[in-house]
What we know:
This protein has 268 residues and is mainly β. It folds into two domains: 8-47, no CATH class; 53-268, no CATH class. Helix content is 0%, strand content 29%. The chain has strands at residues 8-9, 20-25, 32-37, 42-47, 55-61, 65-68, 76-82, 99-100, 109-115, 123-126, 147-149, 155-157, 173-174, 189-191, 200-203, 206-208, 244-245, 261-267. The strands form five sheets. Strands 5-18-7-9-14 form a five-stranded antiparallel β-sheet, with no helix packed on it. Strand 2 and strand 3 (32-37) form a beta hairpin. It starts with 7 loop residues before the first strand and ends with a strand. The model has no long low-confidence stretch (mean pLDDT 91).
Amino acid sequence: MSRVRLIKVATPSSPAATKAEIFYSNTLSPASLAAIDENGKILRIGGFTNQDYRMIKVVELLNGTVSYSPTSGSQAGLVEAIGGGGAGGGVGTAVTNSGAGGGGGSGGYSLKWVTGAAWKSSYTVAIGAGGTAGSAGNNPGNNGGNTTFDSPSICTANGGGGGGGDLIAAGPRVAGANGSGAAAGVGDIANVGGAGGFGLALAAAQAISGMGAGGFPGGQARSVIAQGAGVTSVAIGGGGSGGCALSGGASVAGGAGANGMLIVWEYA
């Protein structure tokens, strides 16, 4: 068996044209095996004081509460969590005026690098469900659920708030309240969610419901401007829009929010 043994040296100057050198530097921090080309550009080949990681698997979890077990031999995981979106609000019967429910807020986003003792053989994972729609009538949309990784959670993305319902009244006026965006959760990065839109009642036959807050990777549940229920969000963690009732119309429901998601990038 043959082997090559390198000793630590100062980082060399650029080799001659069309040449490259492999060396073990004691001036790079941290010390590492590296290569240098004729233009002086350095490529680290591997770290000797810090562990290098190689991605081996990506796991997507989309609903429910489940047990997650990392791949045998994995050493760390990058966890991304998105909370469930809030639902849009409903509207009561429009007798002589119009009404418009508020849009639901979106779930938050959190990211956590998990390694060492925190990287275990099994975790309990809960995916935040989208909020259920505010039922027909002056009823608010329900909040989205939280997405959590482990118990107690080491990565949490909170769910978005539900939009407000609306009573029929003469316009123009601000109608159903907007659903709040999710509060910041737990993680190395923990972002809040976006707020939904307010409903607007303009005249007896003119109203526009609150738009649902956008989810991942984009897109929003549209506002409703005709008699009808709110729109269910199809973007991960997005909020549903509010319902819209015009003069003489029946009561309507809001639109449901979308489920959150959890992604685990496994590394060995």
